Amino acid sequence: MSLLRRIGQDKPNPDPKDSGAGSSDPGKAKLDELRLRRQAVGPAKDTTADLKNQIQTRLIAELDPRMDLSKHDEVRHVIREMFDGLLQQENMVLTRQQRSTLFDQIIAEILGLGPLQPLLEDDDISEIMVNAPDRVYVEKKGRLHLTDVRFESNEHVNRIIDRIVSPIGRRVDESTPFVDARLLDGSRVNIVIPPLALKGSTITIRKFFKDRLQASDLIRFGSVTPEGMEFLKACVEARLNVVVSGGTGSGKTTLLNVMSSFIPSDERIVTVENAAELQLDQDHVVTLESRPPNIEGRGEVSIQQLVINCLRMRPDRIIVGEIRGGEALDMLQAMNTGHDGSLTTAHSNGPRDTISRLETMSLMAGMDLPLRAIREQISSAVDLCVHQERFRDGSRRIVAITEVQGMEGDVITLADIFAFQQTGMEDGKVLGRLRPTGIRPKFMDRIEAAGIHLPPNIFGTRKS
Predict the structure, then answer these.
(1) Domain 215-459 bears CATH identifier 3.40.1080.10
(2) pLDDT tens, 68-86?
(3) Cis peptide before 118 (omega within 30 of 0)
(4) Which terminus has fewer CB within 10 Å in the chain: N or C?
(5) Cα–Cα distance list, 55 to 80, 105, 133, 409 (Å)
(6) How many CA atoms lie within 13 A of 281 on its CB side?
(7) Alpha helices (runs of H) in 94-204, residue ranges in sequence order
């Protein structure tokens, strides 16, 4: 059977005197009315939007509902034929540029994310922020810019939201007015709708690079020095437990992705995330994703439950995308019960704040534990904190690689192995470098026991 019902098939030839008002096809009638209005008064300010809506309505009505929209090339070819046929049938005169723009907009509405699709395809854009239907911002090279992208209405924004959340089994409505989701390419999405969002539904998309960043890319960007990356690689290979910390948008997940690439391919890795974002190259990877409650308030599966469950899955490595609450205590217990080499991220303002947040989040587990017992768990479990920051010029850099050395009395002792030293500003760019502090970490014997030998100058014991 044909993939589409051809335009005009089994329909009587239209009376040229008929303006379309009496047509049984409301879409065609509106197109006729629009064409006559354009001829009478010239192009209006919203003519392009109206034209797109009317043609899009006709195309969707003509498409076979059984068509597999995941076959983009095939569907695009079909829509192209229908689009050209419709313009010819309606005698619409458009320039080549207008035809191309209109077709791309319609394809984006049918197969993509509407007005956001061109922004998603722009590799220079790292983040997309819809504050209102007529206020869409993007981040380019760490700087925010207002775009000329506009939605027709808040209902248009909501249609795009439904297209984002439906494929991954998430929902957003008045009972659940905010949700974390992801796109098919792994990009992270946060959505908030009214009544929480007063000016209309908001969408925040943190894009992932199409080509996964490698360690060499972070070195080239100036996020870390070759010596710092070599040290981190040795720590992962030697199965040290690492917490990557930093503020929102500082690049924690990107660094976690890069560090996870150092895990040997013969180890079983279990990842636990709220919305699956990690992109691991290894073959033996099990990806777990938490689940929100259903419309009846049941069926929720939390990060904490997944962390507990993954201990029964014979993992060599456990990677938790981000710890935000009571799962921190279960993660610490996993690190202390033979699951070495675990990796996770946490929001904080510095290595010392990371330790404090781990204490607070462990208390959120509801266990009546004394603070000293929690601190002993942390000092025993966590070997290294790697802290990232996003600077005022938009650059993202590692500013501290800090060893957790143990307990002195009731205090967890830390020692910076590498620290960022800012040397000034030039043309709005932050100048500086991640430098060794001269301290040799206490866990060096574990690194050497793994057969890894780092040169002394990595720790600044010899001038480079």
Answers:
(1) no
(2) 666 667 777 877 888 888 7
(3) no
(4) N
(5) 12, 11, 22, 73
(6) 14
(7) 96-111, 117-121, 154-165
What are the angstrom distances between the C-alpha of 291 and each of 200, 206, 234, 298, 331? 26, 20, 35, 10, 19
Count the helix, strand and coil residues of the chain and give each as a percent rounded to the nearest 5.
35, 25, 40
117-206 and 215-459 have identical folds: no
Q: Under a CB-based contact definition with an 8 Å cutoff, are residues 114 and 130 in contact?
A: no
Q: Is 117-206 in CATH node 2.30.110.10?
A: no
In sequence order, what are the beta bridge partners of 192? 178, 202
What is the number of helices (H) and of strands (E) in the chain? 14, 15
Give the distance, in angstroms, between the CA of residue 188 and the centroid of all CA atoms in the same chain. 2
Structure tokens at 414: 């830390």
Q: How far apart are CA 312 and CA 266, in angstroms?
A: 19
Strand order across the 343-347 sheet: 285-289, 269-273, 317-320, 343-347, 242-246, 384-390, 396-408, 411-426, 429-436
- The closest alpha carbon to 35, from 13, 20, 57, belongs to 20
| Per-residue pLDDT tens over the stretch 282-318 | 889 999 988 888 777 788 898 889 998 988 899 999 9
> Domain residues of the chain, as ranges?
26-111, 117-206, 215-459
